[in-house]
């Protein structure tokens, strides 16, 4: 049987200083979901000789990250808070992102060997206020350069 990973054990970690050397990554505070996407901007090279079938070649690649969470204004030194995300958006900060298997429940840590790491900029930060629901946020980040699998 395949060793299936529980989605709860994957998380988005950020470093708002933009560096990876000697810097501490922090889990996204009160996160409820996260998604990492790799894309290939294919170049259409379809010709009359392709028998009515599309034909493509490799193009520019990109990555993006989307996450959802609940807004909390608590001060949390172990997590990237909503306030910190807002400031990073307002300042155009390049964020080092790690999308990884994690361990622990209170002081969540990245597990080496199962992570995508890359720099990204916050494209969008939404807040959703519904009746009788937790105040929620959605963040979208676009990759800057090539990510690595570590």
Top-tier CATH class: Mainly Beta
Average predicted local confidence, pLDDT = 86
Number of helices: 1
CATH architecture: Roll
The radius of gyration is 18 Å
Low-confidence stretches: none
Instruction: Kindly identify the CATH topology.
Output: Pnp Oxidase, Chain A
Can you list the strand order of the major beta sheet?
Answer: 3-4-8-7-6-1-2-5
Tell me about the largest β-sheet. Answer: 8 strands, mixed
Order of helices and strands: EEEEEHEEE
Helix content: under 10%
Tell me the layout of helices and strands.
Layout: E1 10-15, E2 26-28, E3 31-44, E4 56-70, E5 79-80, H1 82-91, E6 94-103, E7 109-128, E8 136-149
Parallel strand pairs: 2-5
Antiparallel strand pairs: 1-2, 1-6, 3-4, 4-8, 6-7, 7-8
Task: Walk me through the structure.
With 150 residues, the protein is mostly beta strands. The chain has one domain: Pnp Oxidase, Chain A (Roll). It contains 1 helix and 8 strands. The protein is globular.
Keywords:
150 residues; mainly beta; Pnp Oxidase, Chain A; 8 strands; 7% helix
Concise overview:
This protein is mainly β and 150 residues long. The chain has one helix and eight strands, in the order βββββαβββ.
């Amino acid at each position: 049987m395949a060793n299936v990973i529980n989605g709860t054990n994957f998380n988005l970690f950020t470093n708002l200083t933009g560096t990876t050397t000697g810097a501490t990554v922090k889990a996204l505070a009160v996160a409820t979901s996260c998604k990492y996407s790799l894309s290939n901007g294919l170049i259409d090279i379809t010709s009359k000789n392709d028998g009515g079938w599309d034909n493509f070649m490799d193009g520019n690649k990109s990555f993006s990250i989307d996450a959802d969470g609940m807004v909390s204004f608590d001060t949390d030194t172990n997590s990237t808070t909503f306030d910190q995300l807002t400031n990073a958006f307002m300042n155009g900060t390049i964020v080092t992102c790690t999308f990884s298997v994690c361990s622990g429940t209170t002081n969540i840590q990245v597990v080496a060997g199962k992570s995508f790491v890359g720099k990204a900029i916050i494209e969008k930060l939404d807040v959703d206020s519904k009746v009788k629901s937790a105040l929620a946020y959605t963040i979208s980040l676009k990759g800057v350069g090539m990510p690595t699998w570590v």
